[in-house]
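dumping this here so i dont lose it
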């Protein structure tokens, strides 16, 4: 067992993104996520975005780049919350996608605080 193992929770939006994809694509993304969960810290699979608290699960399948954004909640035994996903069409990750993930992270922690 690797001490880096974590639990992954998908937001409703992340779930919708995954279920909208063809089965083989979804299976490839899920396979790559499992590799990371089992401790494979490869920046080709899971990478922290520069200047952000957001990480991205990265999958290249049939020459298409898929991204699933996530953030850590270390208070919950290294829980990773997947915010949303998109198909990457350029070299640079769109700022609006990063901002969306940051906002979802902020809302998550605010709602968690209110629940205490």
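and the seq i came up w/
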């Amino acid at each position: 067992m690797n001490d880096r193992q974590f639990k992954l929770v998908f937001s409703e939006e992340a779930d919708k993104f995954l279920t909208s994809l063809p089965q083989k694509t979804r299976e490839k993304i899920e396979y790559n996520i499992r590799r990371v969960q089992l401790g494979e810290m490869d920046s080709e699979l899971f990478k922290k975005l520069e200047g952000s608290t957001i990480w991205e699960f990265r999958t290249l399948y049939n020459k298409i780049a898929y991204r699933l954004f996530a953030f850590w909640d270390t208070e919950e035994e290294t829980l990773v919350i997947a915010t949303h996903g998109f198909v990457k069409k350029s070299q640079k990750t769109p700022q609006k996608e990063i901002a969306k993930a940051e906002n979802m992270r902020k809302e998550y922690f605010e709602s968690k605080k209110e629940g205490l």
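Helices lie at 12-20, 23-37, 95-114.
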